[in-house]
Each structure stands twice: as structure tokens, then as C-alpha cells.
Amino acid sequence: MSKSLQAIRGMNDILPEQTPAWRYLETTFATLLDGYGYKEIRLPILEFTELFARGIGEGTDVVDKEMYTFLDRNGESLTLRPEGTAGCVRAVLEHGLTGGGQVQKLWYTGPMFRYEKPQKGRYRQFHQIGVEVFNLPGPDIDAELIIMTARLWRQLGIDDAVTLQLNSLGSSEARAAYRDALVDYLKQHFDQLDEDSQRRLTTNPLRILDSKNAQTQALLTDAPTLSDYLDEESRAHFEGLKARLEAAGIEYTINPKLVRGLDYYGRTVFEWVTDKLGAQGTVCAGGRYDGLITQFGGKPTPGVGFAMGVERLVLMLETLNKIPAELSRPMDIYLCTFGEAAELAGLALAEQLRTALPSLRLAVNAGSGSFKSQFKKADKSGAWFALILGEDELAQRQVGLKPLRNDSAQEMVDWDQLSARLHDSLQQQTSAHSESE
Ligand code: ATP
Ligand code: MG
């Protein structure tokens, strides 16, 4: 293949052997969300650049360094969405879904795009499953979101491998006061800050708390802490959240340096982290963003949400060996036909079987071929049984039923008894199979 025909760096193909795990994750999540009364929303991948500049905020890494932005043929600046919240807020405002204080509990999934340095767990096209809730201001809903994700970890069998980190960012006034105190402190140690943090001191100083640089982290030990600046209402909100998590039996760690990368958060922020994935340890992150909707020109509307990284969760399921084996269930039946008349009759027969047994996995041989070659393909398909339809069988309106996974002999079955017979045989096979596991 010529060198130019390759996928873009950091943008992955998800190959057939990987898609079952993805589907598993997506359907587990969708079923869970249904059960809590959340509704799916589907949003465009492209938005006007201004949406993200205004929503996520200039001075954030995402907006300053990571967006895929280009002019379309009409000269409009468009951006491939780097996250889902801004687009979701735009959509609810555009369609009046939050008007009159209406509560919305929404979820979405799909690809996001960020120009980052690709590495394990960090890609340029990646996928998120996100949830956003509007018009519920209290800590009860913050708690519900966390309780819901905790249930997901249990359902996926990875609850032992993730821990919850929690912080409160307070009101915007509290954050502003804290920001001033932090900047004052760090200015005195300007020369000891890493280069990124020096730049952030003027653009987005709270992000310095998040720095991976060891010397900067050491400096931060004696820095003022955000919790000392919390306003009374935010403090009460945070206490309310903690009490609910405790009542639900959910353990957490308070991480006073948890600030989140995007500008719009206030009060509750949280992350679920794991030590199973190396440096890219956050699998789910979210928080409250009561100020975001007014930033878009809407009426004051409380909002809270989270997003989880699908690639990281799939990696975790793989690493911890938690992908259920039955996901890659092979075919049940492989139909071999010999001669044109049998091939035509076989097509009709296969459709009848599919109607009679809707969950049947039935492969019909394509490309004709000798007895030997069709049997080889039947075997490779993983099917429990091969069905054999040649001229003789056709004349007698029968098929040969040949077990492929044991030594039992082939039998002849009448067409009108075939679906009932397959139903019973497959049930026997699968129950014998699950007992032997
Ligand atoms: P990080 O600190 O890892 O860069 P973030 O704070 O930028 O994460 P968010 O914007 O909160 O991440 O996105 C929510 C989740 O989406 C993350 O916790 C992570 O699981 C996932 N995620 C974010 N960026 C990427 C990426 N480039 N590749 C894969 N997953 C990602
Ligand atoms: Mg990031």
C-alpha cells in the first residue's frame, strides 16, 4: 500500500475483533442510563469555532492548542468538537429544552477530536460517553451521577480498579479570590515554575495545580488551598454531596488540587481514576457548570455532567480480562449447498430459518466450492452444525445436519422439522458448553 494511504496519527481504526467490547460497553451504559430515566441526544460533530472558544474558554489547553479548526468553503471557521458539553448546551438552548426550568437528563456518545500527543490512552480522535443534566441545582443530582457511574463499574466488573476523587471549586467569586491568592504566592517563586506553569500564571493559573512537573508540585505544597476560600453555599453543597455518597456507600478521596481542564466548572468536580493504565489514569471526569448557559446567552440554568473515555475503559476491560467471552460468540449454523438448484433452495430455506429463529446465527456459504472447501469454511466459522443441501437432499426435501464440534454422526432432517430441531440441538449445545466452562 502506498505510504500516503494511512490513517491519520492518533486516529484509530476499531477493528472487528475490538468492536464487540465497544458494543458491550455502549449497550451496558445505554441500558443503565435508560433505567435512571436519561434520554439520548445526538449532536453534530462539527460546530462553529466560536462555540468552543466561548464555552470552554480561551486560555485552556483544549482551545489554545488542541482544536482541529478550519475554514469551510464559505469562509466560516468550524471546529471538530473536542468535547460534548458545549454542543449539548447549544442544542438545548436552540430547541428551548430548558425553558421554564424544565429538567433535562441527557446522554450522548461519539467521537471527539483533540490535537494531542498520541500515546496509550490518549488519541487525536477518541470517544466519549457523556451525560448532562439541566435545571437541578442541588447536590442530590451530583450524587446520582456518581452513584450511577459506580453502578456501571460494578456491572463491568472493574469497581475494584477505580477510585473516586472529589473537590469543590466554589463559586466564581470564591475562585477569583483564590486565584489572586495563588497568583500572589506563585509570583514569588516564578523562577522555580516550569515553563507551562509560567505561561498559565497569566492565562489560567488554576491549571497550575494540575501540573505534572515535580518541582512545581513541590512548590504547591505550601500554596494557599482552594478549600479555604470556599463560599458558604458551596461548602454546604459539598457537604450535601459527601453525605449522600456516604449514605450510598461510595468511597471517595478529597483531592484539593483537582481543578479539571475546562473553564466552565464550579462547585462539584470529580474524577474516577485507575492505576491500571499508566499515565492516562482518568476514565471518567465531570462536574457542575452552573455558569455555562449564561455564557451562551441563556437564562441562568444549573448544569452538571460528566464524560468517560471509551478507549480507556476498553483498555481497562482488556487489561483486567473483563470482556465476556460470549461477546465473540461464533456462528450457530453454516449452510453448505452443492449445485445451482440446491443453492437456490438453500437461500429460501435459510430465510425461513431466520424467520422462525430470530436469534439464530446462520452463515450461508457464498462462492460455491467443493465439499472439502465448504466444510473448511464451515469449520472456520465456529458453527456448531453444518447443514448440507445437495441434489439428493433437495429431491427428498431434507438436509444433512452435521455436528462440527463432536464426533456424532450426520443425520437427515425434513425441512418442515428443521427449525424445531435446530432450536433443540442448539440449546443442548450451548448448555453443554456453558457447563464445561
Ligand atoms: P486528561 O487530563 O487525561 O487530558 P481531560 O481533563 O482533558 O483529560 P476531559 O475533557 O474531562 O479530559 O474528558 C473526559 C474523559 O475523556 C477523560 O477523563 C478521558 O477518559 C477521556 N479523554 C480525554 N482526552 C482524551 C484523549 N485525547 N484520548 C483518549 N481519551 C481522552
Ligand atoms: Mg486533556
Summarize the structure.
With 437 residues, the protein is an alpha+beta fold. The protein contains 15 helices and 16 strands.
Overall pLDDT? 93
- The CATH class label of the largest domain is Alpha Beta
The fold-level CATH name of the largest domain is BirA Bifunctional Protein, domain 2
Strand order of the largest sheet: 1-5-6-11-10-9-7-8
Based on secondary structure, the structural category is: alpha+beta
**What is the CATH superfamily label of the largest domain?**
Bira Bifunctional Protein, Domain 2
How much of the residues is beta strand, in percent? 15-25%
- What is the count of structural domains? 2
Molecular structure report:
With 437 residues, the chain is α+β, with helices and mostly antiparallel strands. The longest helix has 21 residues, at 415-435. The chain folds into two domains: 16-169 and 229-318, 2-Layer Sandwich (BirA Bifunctional Protein, domain 2); 328-425, Rossmann fold (3-Layer(aba) Sandwich). The protein has 15 helices and 16 strands. The protein has helices at residues 19-35, 49-55, 61-66, 85-94, 139-156, 172-187, 195-203, 214-220, 232-247, 292-295, 310-319, 340-356, 371-380, 391-395, 415-435, and strands spanning 39-40, 46-48, 68-71, 77-80, 104-113, 125-134, 162-168, 253-254, 266-274, 282-288, 303-309, 333-337, 362-364, 385-389, 398-403, 411-414. The strands form three sheets. It has an eight-stranded mixed sheet. Strands 13-12-14-15-16 form a five-stranded mixed sheet, sandwiched between helices. It has a three-stranded antiparallel sheet with strand order 2-4-3. Helix 1 (19-35) packs antiparallel against helix 5 (139-156) and helix 5 packs parallel to helix 9. Adenosine-5'-triphosphate binds at residues 83, 114, 116, 121-123, 126, 128, 261, 280, 282-285, 307-309, 311-312.
